[in-house]
Amino acid sequence: MADMILQSGLKNSDFKPHAACEVPDTERKAPHRGILFYHYIQNNLFVPVLGEVDPGFEWASDPAAETRLADWPFTILLQGDKDDDVDRDVCTSVAKSLGTTKAKIFVAAGQGHRFCRESFLEDDDPGMDQVLLAVKELDRAVSDATR
């Protein structure tokens, strides 16, 4: 989507999002798309299957991980409150595990998953106030980290 911005780096005000490419479902596979993911979730198998790949952030509360947590970068979590793809408890759990000195969560009202992928900071879309707050927090975190 390189045409979202002008060569100067400014927002292209003439940009219109492209229509999604639709692939005909000639084999009728769409009703089963993602069914394995839901099987793992509903049968509480997700963590045993992916635990070694993504063990979560429970390690942060282990006293033995004090050095790892101290070295962990400040983490900013931004989520829409109508996100149907990632449960809010996931972000809340990460923020809680890392603690207030290592993580902050921002929740954009009225927004779903990946809501700001076609937005710009100067847009007046719902939820952009939280994006701006998250950017300010990121600026602060980077400034603190480079001192």
Automatic annotation (TrEMBL):
Highest taxon of the lineage: Eukaryota
Record Gene3D superfamilies: alpha/beta hydrolase
Protein name: Peptidase S9 prolyl oligopeptidase catalytic domain-containing protein
Source species of the chain: Coniochaeta pulveracea
